[in-house]
Design goal:
Elements (H helix, E strand, L loop, with lengths): L21 H13 L3 E7 L5 E8 L11 E3 L5 H8 L3 E3 L2 H7 L1 H6 L4 E9 L4 E10 L8 H23 L19 H5 L2 H8 L4 E5 L5 E4 L1 H7 L3 H4 L4 H4 L6 H13 L3 E7 L3 E10 L2 E8 L20 H15 L4 H15 L4 E8 L2 E8 L5 H4 L11 H8 L3 E3 L2 H7 L12 E9 L2 E10 L7 H38 L10 E8 L9 E9 L2 E9 L4 H19 L4 H15 L5 E9 L4 E7 L5 E3 L5 E3 L4 E2 L12 E5 L5 E5 L11 H15 L4 H13 L8 E8 L4
Parallel strand pairs: 21-24
Antiparallel strand pairs: 1-2, 1-6, 2-3, 4-5, 5-6, 7-8, 7-11, 9-10, 10-11, 12-13, 12-16, 14-15, 15-16, 17-27, 18-19, 19-20, 20-21, 21-25, 22-23, 22-26, 26-27
Helix pairs in contact: 1-5, 12-13, 12-17, 13-17, 17-18, 18-19
């Protein structure tokens, strides 16, 4: 087991599995202690960061079909609980919609949920979630929290012991409430009660947690138009064709999840409207059926006899996957989401996403292939080559190969260096009326693609195509922004006598990843000039103005202007350009031979100076306003001692500013890091100083950093 991200104990040769149903008993006890009405235990996969549902209780597993197997990085409560080693509480449908919109879209019902990690101090084994009806208070009580935490801790210890003894966990069945009872008298308890129910003028049915009919009185059979013996033991929407509608099944799911009474009306062909009222409990549902004359004027279309409806599990999976794909930003995000969520949902073990550029096939990403060369040999292949990937991309027609023999018969070229897979689905990715790629789902064993499965896969390909089209556009814009930024900043820093230099630039994580931060190091006769600045904004306009400012500073330096003159000239330039943007700037003339630096500042954060003895001070220089505001502004200069071993740190405000952080506190923290790390080689120091900003998930501003160290003479 790897530390922190391990799976359940794996089988060892000759060892008997754990005898008692450990997971089921723990889950049942946990639910009973906190009065939860459903729950599940997940275990981490042994060879990949994936959580797999091991046992579910209280509700059919189909309710959680989109999340039977989820990646550890997926934005759902059980994954968050394991990654962050904490209890995750979702207090109702509004909170679910706010924090986990993908789940709320599939399960828009009033219920509360708690997810907890199953982990020891060093090893994670999985997670548990439990749910309560919508009547649960919005907060988890201390008693419930303590019970759940203690139960998960005990389960982690037991799994740890099983792992140490190499005892595998035997498969355990899901836990549902009362089993189906196939007789009327046995269901109601007494013959007299059965007679009483049979005399009721309205229909009465009893459904178990799977929606199967355990009891139906004569009135129910008459209203539904189906003999009672056909109802018993079957799901109502399976035995009554005109009820085979996901909308009606959703009401049953809503009642079980929320434990609230729900209702709906349905048209029994040709013209009889019936009212269904569902009364839930933790063991199933009681359904009251009566005529709904008040809605007779409704003109809802009834399904044609024999017409097949898509199963709700398929619909919930599509909704969940659609929500996941909307979160994908770049092409690799799309590939990863398809690999983590779509491929497992449809039973595929391998994935390739293909695109095209300049008439050639491009491998955009792949997962699950032991030999990457099997896939990557197609990268750059002309689209005219006879391969199923290029054929599907050109034609827009999906292709399904149920065995290796079938694909090799049609495409003999694939006999060379074949993959380890035995069946494939090649799905065209068509967006905005044009093909943008091909999604290849690979199966480890021969696989029969039924008509319904082919339709589902083709529809999923449409969702993937839309996400891929957005991702391709995003990546193209990102490359453009990155290229423009690189063109405007110096590719390398010049070598200077007596000065060692290092620089770093990080774009903001929001927007186009391009901005107005800049730096430069300019050699002059016997000396050098250094500049760092920040043009307002994070767009192409800011970057263009930044390029003009940097060029102007170089020109004014070349003609021998002093630091204060360079700042005044640049200020006038911005005003003459008529731009609405402002810029901060710090300019200095370095004279390492005489151990000094002369600086001028325009609204820029103060530089830091680390002395050879390790002490760090903030250089609170005199200065003027931002460039581009006042044509008459002056920018006084300050001379600073730069003895050998001294280190100057020039930076933009993105390095120290973040929401909720005081600027002075942030600068003080930067000083402490510089004190501790200042003796590192300059490139290592630059990496260390920007690492804190690089780790921020939502970096609102660019970061520029320029380090200058005075070298010993000679």
């Amino acid at each position: 087991m790897s530390e922190g991200q391990s799976s359940a104990p794996t089988p060892a040769g000759g060892r008997a599995p754990v005898g008692r149903p450990l997971l089921s008993l723990t889950l049942a006890s946990m639910m009973d202690e906190v009065h939860a009405h459903s729950g599940a235990v997940y275990l981490l996969s042994p060879d990949q960061p994936v959580l797999e549902m091991a046992v579910m209780a209280g509700l059919p597993r189909a309710f959680a079909a989109p999340w039977e197997r989820v990646g550890l990085s997926a934005p759902i409560p059980v994954s968050d609980a394991v990654r962050e080693r904490r209890l995750v509480w979702v207090g109702g449908e509004e909170e679910m919609a706010r924090h986990y919109p993908r789940i709320a879209m599939v399960l828009p019902y009033p219920f509360s949920l708690a997810a907890l990690p199953v982990a020891t101090g060093t090893t994670a084994y999985g997670a548990v979630f439990v749910t309560w009806p919508g009547t649960h208070p919005p907060e988890l009580s201390d008693r419930e929290r303590d019970h759940l935490t203690a139960a998960c801790d005990r389960l982690a210890v037991r799994l740890e012991r099983a792992a140490e003894q190499s005892l595998p966990l035997a498969p355990e069945p899901d836990l549902l409430a009362a089993p189906l009872v196939g007789g009327m008298a046995g269901t109601l308890g007494t013959v007299e009660a059965a007679r009483m129910v049979s005399r009721l003028p309205y229909g009465l049915c009893s459904l178990d947690l799977h929606g199967r009919v355990g009891f139906a009185n004569a009135a129910a059979a008459e209203l539904l138009g189906v003999p009672g013996n056909r109802l018993l033991g079957a799901q109502m929407w399976a035995s009554v064709p005109w009820l085979n509608d996901p909308v009606y099944e959703d009401r049953y799911r809503a009642a079980l999840f929320s434990q609230h009474v729900t209702s709906f009306v349905a048209l029994r062909p040709p013209d009889a409207w019936l009212s269904f009222r569902l009364y839930p409990s933790t063991t199933g549902l009681s359904v009251r059926i009566s005529r709904a004359r008040a809605v007779a004027e409704m003109n809802r279309a009834a399904p044609r006899p024999g017409q097949e409806r898509p199963r709700l599990v398929t619909i919930t999976q599509v909704l969940s996957l659609a929500g996941a794909l909307t979160e994908a930003v770049g092409v690799q995000d799309v590939v990863q989401l398809v690999a983590d969520e779509i491929a497992p949902a449809v039973g595929s073990q391998g994935l390739v996403v293909l695109g095209s550029r300049a008439g050639r096939l491009r491998v955009l990403g792949h997962q699950g292939y032991a030999d990457a060369g099997v896939v990557e040999r197609f990268d750059g292949m002309p689209l005219s080559e006879p391969t199923p990937g290029s054929q599907v991309l050109r034609s827009g027609v999906p292709a399904f190969f149920e065995s290796r023999k079938e694909v090799e018969r049609l495409y003999p070229a694939l006999l060379v260096n074949p993959s380890e897979f035995a069946a494939w689905a090649y799905l065209p990715l068509i967006a905005s009326g044009r093909p943008v790629g091909t999604c290849v789902l690979s199966y480890a064993a021969p696989h029969h693609f039924a008509t319904e499965e082919r339709a589902v896969l083709t529809n999923l390909a449409g969702l993937i195509a839309q996400a891929l089209e957005r991702a391709l556009l995003y990546d193209a814009k990102h490359r453009l922004a990155h290229g423009l930024q690189e063109a405007l900043l110096p590719h390398t820093l010049p070598s200077l006598a007596g000065i060692e230099a290092a620089a770093r630039y990080l774009p903001a994580t929001q927007g186009m990843e391009i901005g107005g931060d800049f730096y430069d190091l300019v050699p002059t006769q016997g000396m050098a000039a250094a500049v760092i600045g920040d043009v307002q904004g994070h767009n192409v306009t800011a970057a263009g103005l930044m390029g003009q400012v940097r060029t102007a500073v170089r020109a004014y330096t070349a003609v021998g202007q002093t630091p204060e003159e360079v700042m005044r000239s640049t200020n006038r330039l911005l005003l003459d350009l008529g731009s609405d943007l402002f810029a901060s700037c710090l300019y200095m003339r370095l004279d390492p031979a005489h151990g000094r630096a002369v600086m001028s500042r325009a609204g820029h954060p103060p530089p830091l100076l680390r002395r050879p003895d390790g002490r760090v001070r903030v250089l609170d220089l005199a200065g003027g306003p931002l460039l581009g505001i006042d044509g008459s502004a002056v920018y006084p200069s300050t001379e600073v001692d730069l003895s050998p071993g001294s280190l100057l740190v020039l930076y933009t405000d993105g390095l120290v500013e973040s929401p909720g952080t005081d600027f002075e506190d942030a600068v003080a923290d930067l000083c402490r890091r510089l004190t501790d790390l200042g003796d590192l080689p300059l490139d290592d120091l630059a990496d260390a100083l920007v690492r804190h900003g690089a780790d921020a998930e939502n970096r609102l501003d660019d970061i520029a950093l320029l380090l200058l160290r005075a070298l010993p003479n000679g």
